[in-house]
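Example (one chain per record):
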Amino acid sequence: MTSGRSLAIFVALAGLATPALAQTADNISRELLADAANRSSFSAAAGGGWEKGSFFISDGGANTLTPYGFTQFRYLMNFRDEDSAGDQDDFTHGFQARRTRVGMKGTVWSKNLSFDMLGEFSRSSGAFTLLDAWGQYKFENNMAIKWGQGKVGLLREELVSDTKQLTLERSTVNSVFTQGRSQMVQLAYTGESFRGWASISDGLNTLNTDFNSASEADYALTARGEFRWGDGDWKRFDDNVSWRGSKYGGMLGAAVHFQDGGETGGTSDTQVLEATVDASMEGNGWNLFAAAVWRNTDASGSDSDDFGAVLQGGYLVSDQCEVFLRYDGVFPDDDSGGDDFHTLTAGANYYLSPESHAAKFSADIQYYFDAEDAAGIISPSTGSNLLADTEDGQIALRLQMQVLF
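Predicted structure:
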């Protein structure tokens, strides 16, 4: 009797509770759906995903963050005269992680205030090294100010990204005369057909130096101007390729750099004056580039004038396959005792996705006409596949796979 009465009471209570439970469940469901809708709305406003070839994160306003990076993996072969190789064989080969870099860029507070930070893993030790670290603010009058570590506006070859070169590597001329990276403050102007940069910096190739470093100049001034014509905008000159279907366009550039040292703590008594002119022309699947550079170095009373010249061109035989050819020559000062150094490079690029550098396979072969040790300002470089030699006629073959995000 007692159990029967208890069962009846339980059934009655359950019946009374069912509508309440149903209402509670319905309320919870509505709250969950509302929360999901809010989160979806926040996600849409904040943004995130893939756009214009890059991942990005955004708060829906001025604050954005884009992680990026790339890797260039190579197989290299080098052939030298037996007398140059010494006790080693005249054939050297192997794999190389030429460049492995990761970075992040974006905007903060305002779309006009941007930043970029880039680092690299050493191909010999794996150590991580800072390359770029700068901020920039764009004004409404086409002017911008940039501060931090990066590349000043000097040689155009150096200013084109490592991932957007026509050949696997920049020329020997660039390796001799390059500005590299330094700490600087730079003003820039970008108009419809003219743009220019002017900067004050620590001097050529002063990557990651402190303000009291002996490798810095007392001061260094650099200015570059570019004039363009024809179809397209400035972005088409971010690389050295012209895709099929592109209309004709060209660009003429010139730059000058001066640095002095020896008057402040630890710097060397050296003056460097460097100037360059270059021309770029692009059309329907073809591109041409030419540059000349001169450098005067006055170090402790020893004065020298060195010259360099580059001529290269490429042609897309299909939407994905491009062939290229380049000549470059370095002409050291006669008083320095160095001989002229000539290089001929020929090769091809295969773009896995048409009109994109995101994934491409490249191959080239270089012929170094002259002995490396006979040109006083030329140094061996595994990046360029130029090894130490005492004889003429070194041959270097490179195969590379590039992937970037």
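Caption: The longest helix spans residues 2-46.
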